[in-house]
Amino acid sequence: ELQAGTGATVYDTAALKQLDTAHHLHPFTDHALLRQRGGARVMVRGDGIYLWDSDGRKIIDGMSGLWCVNVGYGRTGIADAVYAQMQALPFYNSFFNTTNVPAVLLAEQLAQLAPPKFGHVFFTSSGSEANDTVVRMVRRYWDLMEQPQRQVIISRRNAYHGSTMAAASLGGMAGMHAQGGLPIPGIVHIGQPSYAEAGQGMSEAEFGIKAAGWLEEQILELGAGQVAAFIGEPVQGAGGVIIPPPTYWPEIQRICDKYGILLVSDEVICGFGRLGRWFGCELMGFQPDLIAFAKGVTSGYVPLGGVLVSARVAEVLVERGGDFNHGFTYSGHPVACAAALENIRILREEKLVEKVAAETGPHLKAAFAGLALHPLVGQAETCALVAALDLVRVKRGSVHANERFAAKDAVGMICRGHMFDNGVIMRAVGDRMIVAPPLVITRQQIDEMAERIWACLDLTLNDLKARGLV
Ligand code: PMP
Predict the structure, then answer these.
(1) Fewest CB atoms less than 10 Å from the CB: which of 1, 219, 238, 288?
(2) pLDDT 10s digits, 106-146
(3) Quick one: which atom of ligand 1 is closest to the CA of 267?
(4) 416 CA to middle of ligand 1, Å?
(5) How many CB atoms within 10 Å of residue 449?
């Protein structure tokens, strides 16, 4: 008898895997390959930065679930808040001139935490829905401003903004656009601010200005009067932790201001402390008009997302917008909002955002500088509590001189396998290995994680030698 048990239960892993393979379609998964590899790992329990699978193996979760479990696993306070709210009022909608207590309190909290001038929030259940909301809100704004020809939203190649039709169109993932006729009309992409990819022969500062300049070129090509907004992640997450040079975002801001274009920060990953500020735009030095958020707002305990709306947009939508014909059954879901309130209380009480900035972010940087000495690692980059390592075939001391592996050899995936089998979860984006650990990680746990990563890099190197790839 299989049950959704607690961590104490003994699991029949083989049976669970078999049923999963038989009935469960996973996101972003090649199911034939998954079956061939014996099915999915079954996760059963978490505590702090650690996970346990159904075979009882303890694993460091270097990815915070999917960049979201900011306060770590096992927070009974969030479970209690959710339970209490479920008993009081599990659901009511926010459509017909009604609201609920957690939604009100959370909206007020978010207005307090957000950068100045952000006084309103629209709730969704995910980051994808938040970005779909952004598209509709931005276009509605320009309609109301009597500039309906301002339709085009500019995004970036290799950006990730979600998987719904509009969010996947905003995203710049070629593999996603190739399936299902994307992007939808009115969305264009410029290059990403990847110094490794396109900064050869320049300083990082020069490259930041140049990469931001691609926005101005695109605006001029389209005609400024056609452009509604620019959207970007402060640090691109799913694209491979692309950390822009410090000159990039201020220059993007200057260009958006110059042409009156709305600036949207997708903070689904960077928000709620990941970059050592409540919102990543604060670290990167820009003031967006809209902020999309999800993930860290509840630490993933219950799905919740939304769009924070600054005065510039809110004054138009709220004061003279009439009906905004948009919304979700679960907009302002009381249980999700209750989880968020408790999550934010924990982030504040334990000063986790400050801890990332002052303590664990710098410690992760030092630990990754150590990992950069490994023969397989071309370079290491960190920004507060996100970090990445490039696996290279020949290391030559500069990002532009290192020799990469062939894509077909899927070296990142080989490395990820060794990590997972040896108790640490890293994500592979091509041959770039990524971590974004829970914000509760301690300095000692960062050292523990780095030691395991080093050992797994050794295993990977031996494996690659055996395969004749190095
Ligand atoms: N934006 C960014 C920056 C993301 O990283 C993600 C998810 N990884 C999304 C949007 C989409 O969020 P969701 O999966 O909750 O729809």
Answers:
(1) 1
(2) 999 999 999 999 999 999 999 999 999 999 999 999 999 99
(3) 3
(4) 21
(5) 24
